[in-house]
Specification:
The complex is a heterodimer of chains A (93) and B (426). Chain A is built from two helices and five strands, in the order E-E-H-H-E-E-E. Chain A has 93 residues and is of the alpha+beta class. Chain A has a single domain, classed as Roll (Ubiquitin-like (UB roll)). Classes of the chains: A alpha+beta (93), B alpha/beta (426).
């Protein structure tokens, strides 16, 4: 039951420079993936989630290429083999 | 022991001019000037901060007729104008009395016509600033995700600068914008997906070794790039005779242009270059991609992404990074945001062309149609002096208008045939 998380450059200080981290979440949701990520890369969770435990305003998260804001946010299912991408929402036009 | 003579912090030979740092717009964290664009603390966007010296109207007026007359207010060295670039800006501010009459306006209406830039859209401004920053930061390849206009601007600027470029576009882009990018000899990559998909891809490419020396103008150079849009605000104020208009109507894609025009106005006020008079900023979107308008109407300060479906492809950003800041500006200045249908967009293009001889691309049609809609709803004051931004050239989006206009008839080459066609009244 593993999920691959793609980590943006600005968070790779938490992952020893690794662009991808494979985690095995206890719960198969985005929330579970982020909890598992925090275990393998302590401190990274607080960068992605705000003090209320919500996704930060300028973070885009995709599960299998779909923006989780079009899905169920932190409750979006992340089945075995899913890929999760975390990307700064600071680009465009 | 020798003593080094150090230049002062405000020297004009500084690589980034009067720019002094990058600062997170969300949490205020400060960073040194570099190819950074997102805050490590909170992911918020980074913006250029300055320590402006004295800037006078006379200094600006003695500068070149391009954005470089405002070099002292941009994150560029004083010599930016001398480096190979497209020298964009100082486009015409056209008094639009015919359009005003057609819309029932009694206040003076102006069109800031940025189709007059080298690649026929306002994107030349932002790219010129990003290109300068790329040089300072040692990023030799210019790149971008683009809805078309930026693709043109990056490819052309890189050609002028003798630099390689890689331009990524959605594969369904208007054919005109594909040709007018590829012509500059760039490496053009069509990506299956919409603009937001391309944008995401570019964000993911950053950090990959293949892009080590790439400057993505609207991603890792974005803090510098976005500052180029301030020059539209500067020019409007200068061309009005060093004063601010009462109302401005601006198209919203990412929202950066709208926020930067406001920033330009505020900087001019702070520097004493114009008197502080009240102004209202209005945003324009297409109904088929109106996430900022929807947030505005709903009273939200968070912009929920949408999946774009509109002929105004240059505004088709479903996940606008600067949307929340555009909302802040519109609300702070007492403006509003309108959204118009594809049919209204075409009407807007035709109205501007038929009344003022200015052929706008679809984004310009959105802005004209939104002006009309907000006048009808009473949100825009018809008696106030108003500036409308036309950000691109209609020749880039012929498909939008071609089904609706054409010859009055096809006739034999004879006088009588012309007379007949004109109803015998000629």
């Amino acid at each position: 039951m593993s999920v691959t998380v793609r980590v943006p450059t600005i968070l790779r200080t938490y992952t020893d420079g690794q662009a991808e981290v494979v985690v095995v979440p206890e719960v198969e949701t985005l929330s579970g993936v982020l909890s598992a990520l925090e275990v393998s890369a302590p401190g990274i969770g607080a960068r992605v989630l705000d003090d209320d435990g919500k996704l930060r305003r300028f973070v885009n998260v995709y599960v299998n290429d779909d923006d989780v804001r079009f899905l169920d946010g932190l409750d979006t299912p992340t089945p075995d083999g899913a890929s999760v991408s975390v990307i700064p929402a600071v680009a465009g036009g | 022991m020798s003593t080094a003579i150090l230049p002062s912090a405000t020297t004009t030979t500084s690589p980034f001019g009067s720019a002094s740092h990058l600062q997170c717009r969300e949490c205020g964290a400060r960073y040194s000037l570099g190819a950074e664009y997102a805050c490590i603390e909170c992911f918020g966007p980074l913006e250029v901060g300055y320590e402006f010296g004295t800037v006078t109207r006379e200094q600006i007026e003695s500068g070149p007729l391009s954005i470089w007359r405002y070099s002292a207010l941009l994150p560029v060295s004083a010599t930016a104008a001398l480096e190979p670039n497209l020298a964009p800006g100082f486009t015409k501010l056209v008094r639009a009395d015919n359009l005003a009459r057609a819309l029932g306006m009694t206040g003076v209406l102006w069109v800031k016509d940025d189709s007059g830039n080298p690649t026929h859209s306002f994107k030349d401004r932002v790219v010129a600033v990003a290109q300068s920053a790329a040089r300072r930061l040692g990023l030799s390849t210019l790149s971008c995700a683009s809805t078309g206009n930026l693709a043109n601007a990056v490819a052309a600027a890189a050609a002028r600068g003798a630099q390689p470029s890689v331009v990524l576009i959605p594969s369904d882009l208007e054919p005109g914008k594909v040709v007018t990018t590829a012509a500059y000899g760039t490496t053009l990559i069509a990506v299956e997906g919409n603009y937001d998909d391309v944008n995401r891809l570019c964000s993911e490419l950053i950090g990959d070794p293949v892009t080590d020396d790439w400057g993505f103008v609207n991603v890792n150079l974005r803090p510098y790039y976005a500052e180029g849009s301030k020059t539209l605000g500067y020019e409007i104020a200068e061309q009005l005779g060093w004063r601010l208009p009462q109302q401005v109507v601006i198209p919203i894609a990412s929202g950066a242009l709208l926020t930067k025009v406001d920033k330009g106005f505020r900087e001019f006020i702070d520097l004493g270059l114009v008197e502080e008079t009240p102004y209202r900023i209005f945003g324009a979107q297409a109904v088929g991609c109106s996430p900022v308008e929807q947030a505005f109407r709903a009273g939200h300060d968070v912009v929920r992404p949408v999946r774009p479906d509109t002929i105004a492809k240059s505004l088709a950003i479903g996940n606008p990074a600067d949307g929340p800041y555009a909302l802040d500006v519109v609300r702070r200045t007492g403006g509003s945001i309108g959204a118009v249908t594809d049919e209204e967009i075409v009407e807007g293009i035709r109205l501007l062309a038929e009344t003022e001889g200015i052929f706008a691309e679809t984004a310009g049609g959105v802005t004209v149609a939104t002006l009309r809609a907000l006048l009808r709803s009473g949100e825009l004051d018809p008696t106030a002096e108003t500036v409308l931004l036309n950000t691109g050239d209609g020749l880039k989006t012929l498909d939008a208008v071609s089904p609706h206009v054409g010859p009055a008839g096809t006739i034999a080459p004879s006088v009588s045939a012309v007379v007949d066609l004109l109803g015998g009244a000629a």
